Structures are given as structure tokens and as C-alpha cells.
Amino acid sequence: FTLMMLTNIQRKTSTASKMGDTMAAVEAESERHATDIDFMTETDHERGRKGRLKGFTVYWSAGRRPGKTNAETTGVAGCAIALQNDWVAGRPVEEVDKHAGGRGIIVKVQLHDFSWLYLVSIYAPATLGAVGSDRRHDLLDLSKWLRGHLRGKLRGRKAIVAGDMNSVLRAEDRTSGNLNAYDRNANSVPRLLDEYNFMDISVLSQGDLQYTTQFARVNEVRRGTSRIDQIYASPSLVDDYPSLVQSTVCVATASAIDSTHAPLLMSVPCLGSTEPAAQEEAMRLSYKGFNSKAKLAYRNLLGEPEAVTTLGGIRKTVAGALASH
């Protein structure tokens, strides 16, 4: 298994002290869930200020742009990818590219068959913005950058794209049940990825099951509002690793990270430290009967996201479900 975490840290890096506290919280969550890959968004870190995670190598895309002082554009971007050193296990890793405005970064790691896995972290603008506004310009610029890579270096490659997309593709991914203008815009990241046949791993593995990653307080009660934090797989990755359909996705609602976004946790039954062929074969043997029993237990758990705090807890529940049959 490869364990991933996607989290929005909401600009809590503006000083060295805040950066240290935020990285300590991310480190605690990474250790608690034993993650191999962490995607971070809305980092708001200045160029040159890069936090550290124990046991990880972190690749940063700075969020501040020279000369920008408007609150609409300053301190609202930045993203990062952190790779667990033991998971990398000495394999080659390269930083491919960064979006100039800090809204994207691409890192590639070599797999055991000598092909490359491309990892992409995205932080899309929070709103669509009016035509001609800085926010709309940010979206168009990010879309142009990402589309260029989808047509170029990511074309036909094994790739995972994770981030706070700030928009959704399906109405059921908003608790209102309605798509807004941003969701319907052709330059929104989910629509762009869908155009290039990338698969939302949550939809691939969980189908129409609804859950939320973003929350708001209503009368002091924390309520889910949307699933704007998403992880996608490229067509080539899905073709080469059919076991992606059996990925586990959950929301860590009890988190040390101070954010209105709950960390999104994903356990992928591939891309680990073994040879790909052996990994897939081992998965097929160990997951015999998974769909009929264990997957039902996963779905029941995800129906109550407040009860889901760790991937380990999910595995114990599923193991119990299997033992009872």
C-alpha cells in the first residue's frame, strides 16, 4: 500500500514561528497515519521560508508574487509535495516544474520498472472572480500551465494530481446539491482533468458515495459543505494499476492541523516499494472477496465521516467484518 494525505493548511506559515507550528502539526498527522506522500495546499509561504518534516523531503512552490500587494492575490497561494524518505528508498526524484504564481508543482519519482510516476500538487483560486479580475487571471494562468503539462510532460504518463480544487465536477460533491458558476467553468481544474480523462480516485473506488472535506461552523456546529479536495489518477496509471479501484478514501475529521479542511487520506494498493508485477499479484491474492464484504464495510464507514479518524481504525473494522462472515 501507498498512503497519501492531502491537506490545506490555510496560510498558517506567515512567520517562522507559525511555519514551525504548522509543520509540527502536519508531521504529527503524517506520523499518525504513516503516510508516504503528503500534498499540502494554500501554504502561503514566502520564497526562502521552507518548513521541514521529519523523515520527509519537501518540494515547495512559493505562493507570494513580487509586486503584488492586493489582498486578492497576496498570501493566498502556495503548495508543496512531501515524500517519505523510506518510501522513496533511494530511487531518483526530480522536481519537474512550478507554477509561477505558486499554484502548482510537479515532482516525479522513478518506479521499479524505470518508468516515472508524476506527482502534482494544485491549489486553485478560491473563487472564480469577475471577468478581468486578478482572481480570474489566476485561474486562467493556472489552467494554461496545467493544460500545457497535460498535453506535454504528463501525456501518456503515470500521474497523480491532488489538491484543493475549490470547485467540483458533480453536484453531489456539494451539500447544496447544486453546481455553481465556478464548477461549470471550463477552466476549473476538475473539468480540465476530466477533459484529459483523469479519474477521480474517490469516485473510481467509492462510486456515488457522498462525503465532504470542507467544513463550516453553523450555530457552533461543524457541518460539511463540499468535497473540493480531490485526488486524480491519469489514464495510464489506471490502466497499469487496475487495483486503484480498491483504494480506500476517508476524511480525518479529528486532526491536529488547524483548518476548515479535513485532511483527505487515501490508501492505494499499489505504487509501494515492491516490484509492480509482484505488487499487483499480491494484491489480487490478498483481496479475494474484497468487493462483496470488505468494500461494504468501507462504504458504511464513509457514510459517517465523523467516525473516521485513522486508516488503521478502518482496517480493523473491515477485518472484523471479514471475520464475521
Explain what the structure shows.
By secondary structure, this protein is α+β, with helices and mostly antiparallel strands. It is built from ten helices and 14 strands. A hairpin with a 5-residue loop joins strand 6 and strand 7. Helix 9 crosses helix 10. The radius of gyration is 19 Å and the shape is globular.
Gross morphology: globular
The value of Rg in angstroms is 19 Å
Biggest β-sheet: strands ordered side by side in the sheet: 3-4-2-1-14-13
Mean pLDDT: 81
Query: What's the total helix number?
Result: 10
Number of strands: 14
Helicity range: 25-40%
Terminal CA distance reads 24 Å
Order of helices and strands: EHEEEHEEEHEHHEHEEEHEEHHH
Unreliable parts: 69-75, 274-292, 303-310
Blueprint (SSEs and pairs):
Blueprint: E1 2-8, H1 16-33, E2 37-41, E3 56-61, E4 79-84, H2 85-88, E5 93-98, E6 104-110, E7 116-123, H3 134-151, E8 158-164, H4 181-184, H5 189-195, E9 199-200, H6 201-206, E10 214-218, E11 221-226, E12 229-233, H7 235-240, E13 248-251, E14 264-268, H8 276-286, H9 290-302, H10 311-323
Parallel strand pairs: 1-2, 7-8
Antiparallel strand pairs: 1-14, 2-4, 3-4, 5-6, 6-7, 8-12, 9-12, 10-11, 13-14
Helix pairs in contact: 9-10
